Every structure is written in structure tokens, then in C-alpha cells.
Amino acid sequence: MIVIGGDAAGMSAASQARRRLGPGELEILAFERGDFTSYSACGIPYWVGGLVGGPDELIARDPATFRKDHIDVRTGHEVTGINLDARTVTVRDIAAGKDITEGYDVLMYAAGAVPVRPAWADNPASGIFGVQTLGDGAAIEAWLSSFDARDAVVIGGGYIGVEMAEALIRRGLRVTLVERSGQPMSTVDPDMGALVADAVRGLGIELRTGVAVRALETSDDRVRAVVTDDGTIPADVVVLGLGVRPNTALADAAGIPLGDTGGLATDLRQRVTGPDGVVDGVWAAGDCVQVTHLVSGKSLHVPLGTHANKQGRVAGINIGGGYATFPGVIGTAVTKICDLEVARTGLSSKEAEAAGFRFVTATIESTNRAGYFPGAVPMTVKVIAEKDTGLLLGAQIVGRAEAAKRIDAFAIAVWNRMTVVEMTALDLGYAPPFAPVWDPVLIAARKAADKI
Ligand SMILES: Cc1cc2nc3c(=O)[nH]c(=O)nc-3n(C[C@H](O)[C@H](O)[C@H](O)COP(=O)(O)OP(=O)(O)OC[C@H]3O[C@@H](n4cnc5c(N)ncnc54)[C@H](O)[C@@H]3O)c2cc1C
């Protein structure tokens, strides 16, 4: 078994395969072009913000630990070619500058994603950072520690941009968050996004929505400012959170078919598929694959660690001779900026419309605990339900303590195709320190049910 990519998807697959097949039955060789294996990129904003240490704390399993399990991981090795007919890969040992060829029976493609970089972002000056690898986190750390940086500009108001804005505010910088669309967190409806925008501004972050970046101004090999279509913003540090696309160039060059989103298409068992069926011996998982949205039925690219780990596990179980499936996703995601928590599952209003649903929405205000209990803070919950059937299509939550993970109740309901009427009878836990007597989840479901 050869694994391309030594992080969430690739190493989950390797570990699961090894659990089922001993070293005498399956030889596992994993190539990672970077220096780390099984690391949490998700922790980088919290490392930069000083909430957690890094990079060692962000590594779940290092190559030495894998070797104990007879998984041979080679960091600093980049796979540069795949020959499907010969069943070989060509690998560059980066430090030695040497190429080697290795044969496989099973190829696990888990090369992740590549960051989106418009032409203006292609600038070699210092002070400009992506946030994808632990190396990126270390580079930001080193830059911020090397001088008294004052002005930070984060470009892109998705969850990574928002998390990085929090990190930089925590470091005492003046932070501007620039977002091309009309709201930060455009994965939630505009009315919920407006709550996020208010909270972001309340933290002292200068939020510039509807603003497009045109160029980065540099001098003496350092970034100095971000030029937008609405003026120039001074910058000692620029962080790019512009999204990612599947890293499938290597697969494409080898003639492995890509799905319609540009990610690899797989069957439920994570075998790569194309117009002619399964591609013999090739498996894929993680940010390089596309997934099916179980509510809209559409193919999507959803680069999240939660999916990468599950898909890698599924692939590894199957490679090891077991049986497991990854049915798809329902668009669940959570994030936070300082104490504001944001969550979503299912379809947003825009997505429900695009998928052709007729739907109603219901929005309620409630609190995380009984209103009289210390620490009770407000939360807004929005529910989207199919108009005629009441089928729960999606939900969104913006609030503070204990708000975001309430989305899991909605996620389970979406997953199991419950209606909002059915949801009103759910036996959710209640005691004053945890919820009002009617949990916000139930109040929102009830309000939506009233509209059906
Ligand atoms: C800042 C940040 C915060 C995030 N927060 C969250 C979160 O809160 N929740 C969540 O669910 N997800 C989050 N994610 C997303 C999550 O980190 C990814 O979805 C997950 O890491 C994907 O795992 P993967 O194994 O598919 O890809 P990756 O983690 O990208 O790993 C792919 C690996 O393949 C290597 N590679 C690529 N090409 C080659 C090659 N040719 N040869 C050898 N090696 C190669 C790369 O170096 C990389 O290490 C976050 C991501 C970032 C960047």
C-alpha cells in the first residue's frame, strides 16, 4: 500500500489497514512532502492566538510512532508521478534531490487541497502568509515575533479568515478583515451573517465587506499595504484565507478521472471512480475528493477534517478487507470568533433555493441556560424546513456559550430526515444550568412547525 499525503486522510487509512492486516500481509509506505504527519491544521489559528502551543502539541502521531506500527512514513518525500499501468509512483527525496520508484498494489491518494491564489497574491515579499500547514503557522509566528507588527489585514471572511482575525486581535494587532461578498461567513444566511458582522466589529476588528483586493503593496521585500477597490489599507502582515481547491493535479496527469467539482469522485467505499467504473487499485479520501450532499443530492467539494478522518478510516477498513462506507455530508460546520459561536447544518436558504426546494424559515431568540440562571446569554436559531412536508432542510445558530454544538441535534435530525413537527417532541435534556425548559432547538422547531 502506498499512501500519498501523510495527514488526516492518508494516515487514517494507513492505520486502519494496519489494524486489519499485519506487516506480513500488507507493507505500508506513506510519502509526505512536508515535515510533519497527522497534524492538526485546525489548531493553527489557536496556536497563533496563543491559546494552544505548537507545533508539537498539534501533532497527533509522528513518523516514529507510525514506524512502531510498521507503517513506513517518509517525510520530505514528494510523489511526482503515478503510472497506473505499471502500478508505480515516482517519488522525489527532497533533501537528497534524488528520485525513486516504488510499486504498489493499492494506492491511497490523500494529497489534500491547494490554496486558491489569485494573481495579485503571487508575491514573494515577506509578511504574506497562507494558513494551511504547520510550516505556515511557524512562519506567521516567526514574523510576528521578529518585530513590533501593528497592522494586520486578513483577506477572506470564511471560517479560517475569521479565526485568524481573532488570533491577531488576541496578539494585540490592529486587524482589518476584507471580504469580497456582503458578509463574513457567507455559508450562513445573510440575517445570521449580519449577527456575525456586528460581533466581529464589536471586537474592534475593522470589517470591510463588499470590498475586492486588487494588489499587495510591497517595498524593501516587505508587505506594506493591501490595495482594494475601496482604498488602501496599511499592513505589516497579510493573511490569506481565500479558500482551497482539491489537490488533484497529480491524479489528473496520471489519467485518473476527476469528478465534476475537480475533486476525485469515489464510490461509497472510497474507491476512485470514473465514467468506466472503479479505477482498479486506487482509493482516495479527504480534501482531494468530492462528496455528495445528502439533502440536495449535489456533488460538492467540502474540505473539512471531520470528513477527511472518516473517509480515510473507511478506505483503510476496506483496504484491510473489511467493509465500511462514507455516505456523504449534510453541510455541518462550527466555528467561533472570540466568544461568538457560529454553526450550520443542512442547506442554507440560498442552497435550498438552488436545490429547488419550496421552504419556510423560522428564527427565534432564546438563551443557552434558564433565563434566571447565572451565565445565561442570548442565542439566535434559524430553521429551514420544506414547505409542504415540514422536512428539516437546515439550521443555523449564532450565539455565545454552548450555542454552536447544539447544531448537532439538528444535524442528527437532518441526517435521519426528520420533520420539524417530529422534532418538537424530541426528548432533549433539561435542567436550568444547561437549557431553558424549552431548549432553543425545540423552540425553533416549534416555530417552523407552526408555519407548515
Ligand atoms: C487553518 C485551518 C483550520 C481548519 N479548521 C478546521 C476545523 O475546525 N474543522 C474541520 O473539520 N476542518 C478544519 N480544517 C480543514 C482540515 O484541516 C482539512 O480538511 C484536513 O486537514 C484535510 O485532511 P487531508 O488529509 O485530506 O489533507 P491535508 O491535511 O491537506 O494533508 C494532505 C497532505 O498531503 C501532502 N501532499 C500533497 N501532495 C503530496 C505529494 N505529491 N507527495 C507527498 N505528499 C503530498 C501535503 O503536504 C499534506 O500534508 C482547517 C484547515 C485549516 C488550514
TrEMBL record:
Keywords: FAD, Flavoprotein, Oxidoreductase, Redox-active center. Gene3D superfamilies: FAD/NAD(P)-binding domain. Residues 2-294 form the FAD/NAD(P)-binding domain. This is Flavoprotein oxidoreductase. SUPFAM superfamilies: FAD/NAD(P)-binding domain, FAD/NAD-linked reductases, dimerisation (C-terminal) domain. InterPro entries: FAD-bd_OxRdtase, FAD/NAD-bd_sf, FAD/NAD-binding_dom, FAD/NAD-linked_Rdtase_dimer_sf, Pyr_nucl-diS_OxRdtase_dimer. Residues 334-436 form the Pyridine nucleotide-disulphide oxidoreductase dimerisation domain. The keyword Oxidoreductase applies. It holds the Pfam family Pyr_redox_dim. Its cofactor is FAD. Belongs to the class-III pyridine nucleotide-disulfide oxidoreductase family.
